[in-house]
């Protein structure tokens, strides 16, 4: 039997605030991801050097992940989420204004690091606020995020083909942040989330093997997603002959799959056992990757990316839910540690794929994807069997 007793997900104004904060976060993430191939051309650097922007994103995420428990104790989750959005916009504007490699690396790092504290503080708040429906709320938050974020690569692709240039499209993120602050700046969740974030009976305790296995699965999933985010447009251009600005729309197909999958996943997470749903999502990603990897036709390549996005859509929500479930009631410590796992994945995955692409070609480098899928499935099955 693969179903569980359904639970209700109640979407109050506080829930919608976090959903829309994650949506604003997504415009930064997919915007800077779609901009990377064009930034590489502007700077005249290799794929491996361009991949350092992913490393900068990872370093930013790791540093703020280490600081997140302290920040949450000092100022609470509400202030942390808004502080993260402010810093994220500072990084985006730095990339928009800068042309030199050190400046854009700094911009990617600042944007990523500050954005990650908004993401992980928001996920912990949703998990606490919704209890048994926490996994569904996390999935739906990411669905809303992708739905909003999908506009970013589309706007960047269009702007790149006009006199404005792709950099002007990065203003989308600060504009949306300002609108959200003006309309919902006073909204937040009932008090128990911040109270529980300050201290706990197990604050200094160590996590067990289940937690670190869940963290390893999260690492594989984040590395996989960022490899698609940062390099799928390059492979699409190589295999189909499309110009870079048009190939950037491949990320739109991928994010449309993400959006559809996360909305569906929010419902499926209420009915299907998480390990079964997780393995199924990884299998679907493998099918989409194979179609994209083998195709030289633009339509089939877009279809493969959309199918891959549909599978990837559930990876992060389910992986993060596993981390929180294994945390022993310490969500803020768990999400901080999860952000470090994710940061290292962002550093290692795209950089390694870029280096492999320089040496062996982008198509062969994308064989990393099924390897990461296999490792993630192994981690899920092993931890589920040992727990049982």
Automatic annotation (TrEMBL):
InterPro entries listed in its UniProt record: MFS, MFS_trans_sf, MFS_Transporter
Domain of life of the native organism: Bacteria
TM annotation in the entry: 16-36, 48-68, 138-160, 166-188, 209-232, 244-264, 276-294, 300-324, 336-357, 363-382
Keyword Cytoplasm tagged: no
A GO MF label: transmembrane transporter activity
Record has Transmembrane helix as a keyword: yes
Keywords for the protein's UniProt record, in alphabetical order: Membrane, Transmembrane, Transmembrane helix, Transport
Localisation: Endomembrane system
Gene3D superfamilies according to UniProt: MFS general substrate transporter like domains
GO annotation, cellular component aspect: endomembrane system; membrane
UniProt similarity note: Belongs to the major facilitator superfamily.
PANTHER family named among the record's database cross-references: BYPASS OF STOP CODON PROTEIN 6
Protein name listed in UniProt: Major facilitator superfamily (MFS) profile domain-containing protein
